[in-house]
Amino acid sequence: MDNLTVTSEQVEELAKNFSRTDDFVRVMTYYRCAIMEIQTKLNVLNQEFSLQYDRNPFESIESRLKKPESIVEKMLRRNIPLTVEDMEQEMTDIAGIRVICSFQEDLYNLADLLVEQDDVLLISRKDYIANPKPNGYRSLHLLIDIPIFLSQGKKHMKVEVQFRTIAMDFWASVDHKLKYKKNIRDAEAVVGKLKICADTLARMDAEMEEIRRTIDADGEKLHE
Ligand code: 0O2
């Protein structure tokens, strides 16, 4: 079958069969366990950080496993053989975690503290905050290797962790809607406006960070 001409119905059918296999179900359970491991690490850091600095570094954590249709669609698009082994080897975003912070500084601190841990291996780091995408997308993406401990032994899993501020997340969720909407009148103008919003939100993040620093510094003086 020519991967370029596969219809959405065919993808759905292939995904249905692929996701029914025992191997697929087992591996997806492992990915779920890997998400739980990272979430626990982040929750521990959040608790400890709040003791030390009197605030929580993150507002919320979201997680998701990529849907079978999206997995199959991407594997076909990238000419990856449709096997569970190749999926584990080649796909890096099956397990995803999104950490939403109020402040940019906290987001970087949290990411550093996570990758410093003994059993966490950083595979790659994409800093779309320092280097935003041309459309204005900003986030810090870490691809992490984490072991999970099973009755049969240890297994290494890949998890993609995205760190964003609330403002970056707001922007990304609006941008995401644009991707799935067809027939938008003057899509070019919308893209342009979104870029302006991304820049405005980036300035706002910087100002909020400044306000937080002032509040923290004055708060310390009061306690002296
Ligand atoms: P979903 O539904 O969030 O999972 P790849 O992921 O391999 O196709 P690449 O370049 O390796 O491509 O990934 P990259 O740039 O690290 O980005 C992957 C994920 O980041 C996306 O996953 C989105 O979640 C997010 N992302 C990246 N660019 C944008 C953007 O311009 N707008 C928005 N809203 N999100 C973005 P998925 O699989 O596309 O989507």
Overview of the molecule:
It is a single chain. With 224 residues, the chain is an alpha+beta fold. Helix content is 56%, strand content 21%. It has seven helices and five strands; from the N terminus they run ααβααβαβββαα. A five-stranded mixed β-sheet has the order 1-2-5-4-3. α1 packs across α3 and α6 packs antiparallel against α7. The structure holds ligand 0O2. Ligand 0O2 binds next to α6.
Task: Write out key terms for the chains shown.
alpha+beta, 7 helices, 56% helix, flat
Please work out how many helical segments DSSP would assign: 7
Helical content (DSSP H or I, runs of 4+): 55-70%
Structural class: alpha+beta
Count the E strands: 5
Say which molecules are bound, naming each kind only once. ligand 0O2
Separation of the first and last Cα atoms: 72 Å
What is the typical, i.e. mean, pLDDT? 92
Alpha-carbon Rg, integer? 20 Å
Task: Let me know the largest β-sheet.
Answer: 5 strands, mixed
Concise overview:
The protein has 224 residues and is of the alpha+beta class. 56% of the residues lie in helices and 21% in strands. The protein binds ligand 0O2.
